[in-house]
Every structure is written in C-alpha cells, then in structure tokens.
Specification:
There is one protein chain. The chain is α/β, with parallel strands linked by helices. It has eight helices and twelve strands. A hairpin with a 2-residue loop joins strand 4 and strand 5. The chain binds arginine (ARG). The site of arginine has 15 residues, from loops.
Length: about 260
C-alpha cells in the first residue's frame, strides 16, 4: 500500500476525477481503516513511499507479480508515468526479477488483470492495450504454460479498469457490472466463470472494487444489496468508507496490491 499523504485531485484522467472537488481529511481515516482491516486478517502490509509529484500513487496500479517476477505498468497518461520508477526500485530492492514489456504498449498492472485460479482476465480498451496483453501472455506462459489469458474488452469510460467492474471471488465465481463489457467480452466472461451481477447503483459505489481474502471481503460501504448476496454465499463482509478515493476513481482494491 502507499500512504495517502499527497493524494488529491490535481488532474482528471477518468470521469470520476473533478479537479474542483475537495478531498477531505477523511482520506487518512479511510485509508488507515482499510489497512487495519487487512492487518486484522493477518495480511502483512508493506509500504511504498508516497511522492509529492504523484498524487495517484495511492492507487498502487504499479504492475503485476507472478511468483518472483514483477512486470511493471506502462501507464497510459503522462501524469502517472513517473510512478513506475518507484515501483521498479521497490521490487528490485525486495529481490524480484523485473520483466518489462515494450515501452509503447500501455499496461496498467493489476488494475486491468485479475486472477481466478490459473486464468488471468485481462481488461483492455481504456488503459491497457491488446499488444500489452500479448506480451504479458508470452512472459507468463514461459513461467507457467498452464496459465490462460482471457482478453476482456471494456466499453464504459466510468469503468475504465477491469477491477472497477469485475471481481473474482474464487476460481469459479465473480462479481461483475454487466454494462461495462462489450458483447464479445460478456461471452468470454460467461464461458470462463460464473457471474454474479452488481446493479449500476452499486457499481457506482465501487462494489466490484473489492479484495477477497479467502472468505473475507473488504468492500466499499453502501452496497447493501450485494452484501446480502455475498453473505448467502458464506462470505464475511467488511464494508469500508471509500468516499474520498472514489473521487479519484478507485477504492479498496486499487488501494492495495495483494500478492
Ligand atoms: N486516478 C487513478 C487513475 O485514473 C485511479 C486509479 C484506480 N486504480 C484502479 N486499479 N482501478 O489512474
């Protein structure tokens, strides 16, 4: 996780971001609550040092990890491109092998890539590109040929990262907001995983931007309808206020890079 010291809306690169909007001091409480909830679930937290020049660094979309390998993001917007260096340094320092994809191919790490067992769902259309998907596929398949990459086309600019509209609960089931996907993507999803729909109202509360740790789910507050469904499936819900981070277009999942 990366502390929210400098988090603010300084520019707008997605429809949620309005530079006239003020981020309140609650950002600290909300972020700390998320961190403490992870800690209560015995998740060990490591911190990336925040940088004043990069207010979006709090959303740790810095790449993906597979085993001891780190594939850094190639951020689409120049506003975030400088975050990459800090991520690469951190992973190098912690003993990871850095494998880069070509610089011209946009890739936004675990914002657009979500695992369900050996399947990696790869969102493209707004931030990550199909070319990046092919490169990531090549890299991962070399490490483990069993990995299957499933390209998923996103079509609603409000749900610009796959983790804003899709959330695998385990290898067989996932939450999703149907309106975010092209017909082709919907087919791909249905073929590969059982889908539990989230309403538009709850999708706008970032209900899909949740983190699943076995049977515990850290999920933004105010998505009561989906909580009910999840409880029926045997999950324990940990609702967390995320209002300040939703102003930047992210919530629980974007604020944490679970490895
Ligand atoms: N303001 C950030 C951006 O637009 C938010 C990133 C949210 N991250 C995510 N994984 N959905 O890039």
């Amino acid at each position: 996780m990366c502390p929210p010291d400098y988090f603010d809306i300084k520019y707008s690169i997605n429809p949620w971001m309005n530079t006239k909007e003020n981020v309140s001091r609650n950002k600290r409480i909300q972020w700390e609550t998320l961190k403490e909830t992870f800690e209560k679930l015995n998740v060990q937290i490591k911190l990336l040092k925040p940088q004043k020049r990069f207010p979006d660094m709090v959303y740790v979309d810095i790449g993906i990890v597979y085993k001891n390998n780190f594939i850094p993001s190639n951020f689409r917007y120049k506003e975030r491109q400088g975050e990459r260096k800090y991520a690469v340094d951190w992973f190098k320092k912690h003993g990871y092998k850095i494998i880069e994809i070509e610089k011209d191919f946009y890739f936004e790490g675990h914002g657009d890539t979500l695992w369900a067992g050996d399947k990696l769902f790869f969102g493209y259309g707004f931030r990550s590109s199909m070319e990046a998907q092919k490169q990531v596929e090549k890299i991962l398949k070399k490490i483990n040929p069993k990995i299957e990459i499933i390209p998923i086309e996103l079509i609603d600019p409000r749900f610009y990262h796959l983790d804003t509209c899709f959330c695998p609960l385990n290898s067989k089931q996932a939450l999703y907001f149907p309106g975010a996907f092209s017909p082709k993507a919907k087919k791909m999803l249905t073929k590969n995983i059982e889908l539990i729909p989230v309403s538009e109202k709850e999708a706008k509360k970032f209900a899909c931007n949740a983190v699943v740790i076995n049977k515990d789910i850290l999920i933004p507050a105010d998505a009561n309808f989906i909580y009910k469904k999840l409880k029926k499936l045997g999950y324990k819900i940990h609702p967390i206020e995320m209002t300040e981070f939703i102003k930047g277009g992210g919530a629980c999942k974007c604020l944490s890079f679970v490895m």
